[in-house]
Amino acid sequence: GTPGIGKSFACGSFLLHQLLHYDGGLLDVVAYFIRDSAYVIHNARPGVAGSVVLYDNIDATVNLIVDMARKKKGHKRGFIIVDISQELKEPPSGLPTNFWPTVVLTSPDVRHYEQWMKDRNDKLIYVNCDDERDLKAFVAWQKLFPLGQDAGITDELCKEISDEWKRVKQRIEQVGPLPRFVLNADSYESRHSQICNAISDITLNNKAPYMGILRMNSEWQSDHVSHKLVKLVRVREDLNNETYRCVPLSSDIHERVKVKMLQILKDAWVLLRLAPSDCRAAVGLELLSFDAFRYSDVTEAVVDKLVYLQRDGETCKKSALAKFNEKQLRLQSSECLGTAENSTVKECKYYVLYKPSVGNFPVADGFFFVEGHGTSGERAAVRAAHSRDAHQPKTIVLLQATKTCATTPRTGKLLKLKAILRRAFRDWADFSKNMRWEIVYVQHPDAATVQEAAEV
């Protein structure tokens, strides 16, 4: 899980409590490795008091555990928790995991668990950050718990809880939903300063790790880029397997990285002012991903290169983007769609780039709405600017980045996308009437060209 979500103080403590109270004391021993020490907790037995022993020698503790687990007579039933930290960078290699189940609490940094996984063929479990509801409940609990069960709820107490939540919510919007940094003012200030420094350090030469943040597909890095700017989001690969994606810790971080990259792009634009338009467009897409479509130069260059793939029975049809002028080709703004746990219902708007908040979004990496259909390459007449008439012709343009040859979207993924859009936009039922769909494939130069139109 993401550093700062409470793997030690929340998940680790909860696991320990549950194990010590498991099925009437079925376990004899629970060992908890943390930092450069280990606690060996012996459960109470009839006539024998329980005990806790602290060991400051990891190797000696491992030998003790091996001895307890492998005794032919009177062997102990146990469980091991390993809490990875700066002092304990990977689990001790000699733990008897074939006798005692073991849980390792760690960040997504593969250096902490890669060798462990290879040796044991273990399973990864991904833990999401808390959502706002969890943190709001904790803020209330902090205020209510010390008062006891018999304390009354006064207006003054309600205001105190409300004010504290406003402060915490503002911190969440800045640094992300991490209890370690939003529940304490000093920790928040320190973290906010670290984030500012990390973003200010972005340059044209070190941009690569930050580009993944804008594309919502960054990998976890063993540096401050991951630890301060992104969070792990659990996603399902298929019915039986799961993995994770890294997305910005907050919309504010995403926006600030985007602004910094825009500044870098502007500086690069000056250097590229004599370069061909398609070259400038390529640089824009590399730096900003689909946010580059907010530059009319980029959009115009891409549209100029579009090859419309005819559907069966179509003749002489062009993209809905083909006849837009330079002003109309520029997207006005960009917005992120919320996750299922923390979503804000929106209204459909023309010329706004909508981007998913997670990396496993079906079919598209972004999309926007334009007025008119692509019939004969001409734009349908618009009765009023940005009219919301449900019958007005309109097109949703899906953007899909492909490293290899793009494939036609499967029906199941398209249905999943439509279900997401119905949840994300309150006016989808009306707005989607008289709407046509287009997909723009943005490919790597070495990828095989798409030859078949998708049936959307």
Automatic annotation (TrEMBL):
Protein name from the UniProt record: Putative retrotransposon hot spot (RHS) protein
Stored Pfam families: RHSP (PF07999)
NCBIfam families assigned to the protein according to its UniProt record, in alphabetical order: Trypano_RHS
Organism ancestry: Eukaryota, Discoba, Euglenozoa, Kinetoplastea, Metakinetoplastina
Domain Retrotransposon hot spot protein,C-terminal: 1-309
